[in-house]
Amino acid sequence: MICLGIEGTAHTFGMGIVDSAGRVLANPTKTYFPEKGGIHPREAAQFHAANAKLVLEEALRAARIEIEDIDLVAFSQGPGLGPVLRTTATAARALAVWLGVPIVGVNHCIAHIEIGRLTEAAKDPVTLYVSGGNTQVIAFDAGRYRVFGETIDIPVGNCLDVFAREVGRPHPGGPIVEKLAKAGKNYLPLPYVVKGMDLSFSGLLTEAIRKHREGANINDLCYSLQETAFAALVEVTERALAHTEKKELLLTGGVAANGRLREMLKLMAREQRAKFYVPPRELCGDQGAMIAWNGILAYKSGFRQSIKDTKVKQRWRTDEVEVTWRRS
Ligand code: ATP
Ligand code: FE2
Questions:
Q1: Which ligand has the shortest distance to the CA of 10?
Q2: Residue 128, exposed/middle/buried by CB under 10 A (0-12, 13-18, 19+)?
Q3: Whole-model pTM above 0.70?
Q4: Best mutation site among 286, 290, 291 for ligand 1 pocket (most ligand atoms within 8 Å of CB)
Q5: 124-279: same fold as 2-112+283-320?
Q6: What number does the ligand 1 atom closest to the CA of 253 have?
Q7: Ligand 1 neighbour 184 (Cβ under 6 A)
Q8: Domain 2-112+283-320, what fold?
């Protein structure tokens, strides 16, 4: 079985082609960058609509298949930005109906985990999913993916992006902050906020921007921002590992590219006697292959969806998803 997976929840539009053996045959993406400021949902949706045909052609070419070879269409049904989700769902419905093949709506956050379970040896990990739009600590428990901890305000990637923007650096901020942090020497105290199992990064962001305006050294600031934000992520993830007694840790999302975060998690995992996994970078960010693979898992487990059930779910929570393809 060959599945076309369509991802479109935020900046990135992607189409992945994956077969039922778990081979990723193609995975092109196109990313919308706002000229200035944050993401504009309607502009992003227009960008995706304008690029959909191109990305599809590129995917078919890379996979060396014809469009008629597609047996299943999967798409990111949520969570995400309304206009972007609706554009993605429209493309998926049109293709599924035209090809006469089944359609499967996939949860974006869970798809990140499933592609990690495919490419890494991790079978039942605690997952730290960190990106520009999400920050969650997730683990499978009693038939569902449960959120053990999450941000109560902004995602950690967004914190890095906004900080960079405020100090006059281009988007995305994560890689820039990482680079500057390497030259940082002094730790400048910043608010560290962990409430129970939840995280908060907005106070940290405000204080870092304030310190910049007061003339703090930019390298020291980036270093301190990373150390503070990542220590909070590590603390909550460590507690989720200890609580669930799982022995695998999976890091994914765009922020997984960060070397310092990887280093800190690796150390913690060793202390917890857990194995640490990070999927290849191109499968950590948003892309269609993860949607396609999750679509195959759901379909093979007997999940079926009619077109009228493909309405987008902007706030679809990870723990609301019926995980028909996993028992334990
Ligand atoms: P999602 O829809 O899952 O929230 P996204 O639209 O944020 O995803 P991703 O590609 O998953 O897209 O992640 C982008 C984020 O990753 C940005 O916030 C970016 O700054 C961050 N990032 C990328 N590289 C690094 C890095 N080296 N260190 C820290 N953050 C990074
Ligand atoms: Fe994502």
A1: 1
A2: buried
A3: yes
A4: 286
A5: yes
A6: 11
A7: no
A8: Nucleotidyltransferase; domain 5 (3.30.420)
